[in-house]
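Standup notes
- HV: blocked on the assembly model, inputs below
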Amino acid sequence: MSQSPGRKQENHKISRELFVLTYGALVAQLCKDYEKDEDVNACLDRMGYSIGIRLIDDFLARSAVKKCRSYSETADMIAQVAFKMYLGVTPSVSCSSAAGNEFSLILDKNPLVDFVEELPVERASLCYCNLLCGVIRGALEMVHLAAEVSFLQDRLKGDAVTEIGITFLRKPEDRKHRRN
Amino acid sequence: MADEALFLLLHGEMVAGLYRAAEQGEGENGRCTTKLESMGFRVGQGLIERFTKDTARFKDELDIMKFICKDFWTTVFKKQIDNLRTNHQGIYVLQDNKFRLLTQMSAGKQYLEHAPKYLAFTCGLIRGGLSNLGIKSIVTAEVSSMPACK
C-alpha cells in the first residue's frame, strides 16, 4: 500500500464526513421545502425507514451475527455492533421498563451533528437525527420485530445527552406462543 | 467499508424522496435536479476544505483536476477516475467505468433514463469542490451505458 496508515485513517474520517455533510445538506433542503417541523421530522423518519429496510440486509451480511434471543440482546446488538459499524460510536444501552421491552440508547457523541452547533430559533422542534429513528424502526421490522423508536433527549435541544428510546411492541409471551 | 453502504442508501433515498415530493407537488423535474445539484455543491465545498487542509498548494488547473481524479475520487468513491481527457482549453472529461452510485442499478442500458438523477449530486460535489479551490466551472454528466459515466 503506498498510502501510510495515517492516510487511511484520514480517508475513513473523510468518508464519514461525506455522509454527515450530505445528511446536513439534506436536512437543510427539507427545511427549505417544508415549513412545519413536524413535516420535516416525518419526512426524515420515512426516509430513514426506507434506508433501514435495506440496511438490515447489508448489516446481516457483514456482521454474520446469530439470531438474537431476547429484546435486550437485540438492543445490545444495535448499540454495540450496528452503531459501531456504521457510525463508529457505541451508545450505552439501558433497559427502562420492568416488562423488558423498552430500552434506551444513550449517545454521548453523535457523529451526525459534528458540524451542527445549534438548531435555528425557528426550528426549535426539529429532530435533526430523526433519520436514525426511521432506520432502526425499518431494520427491526425486517427482522419481524415491530418497534417504536423516538428521541427522548436531544443534545441539540439543550439536554445533556442524546437518548433514543426503542419500545418493542410485542410482548415476550407472544413470541413464546408462536413458537409452540 | 460500511460507511459506503450507508451513503449509497442515503443518496438513493434522497433522489427518490425529492422526486416523490415533486410528483405530489408541482411536478417539475428540473427543480429536483437543481436541488440535488445544489446539495452536492454545499457538500463538495465542505468536503474539499477538510480534505485539502494538509496538502500542498496546487500548481495549476491540471494539477487540481488530477487531484480530483485521484485522491478526491478515491476517498469518496473508493476508486480512481479511469480516464481523464482534456483539450487544454478548459474542458475536461472524467470517465468512470464503474461509477459506484450506478453499479447497483444496472449493467447496461436498462434504467438509462433514470441515471442522470443519480449523477446530479455528484456533479454538484465536483462543482463545489472546484469552487472552493478557486475554479468556477460547469459540470455536466453523461451516461451512455451503465455503470460507466462521463
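- HV (later): unblocked. Chain A touches chain B through 30 residues (CB under 8 Å). Chain A has one domain: 16-168.
- Next: hand off to the docking folks.
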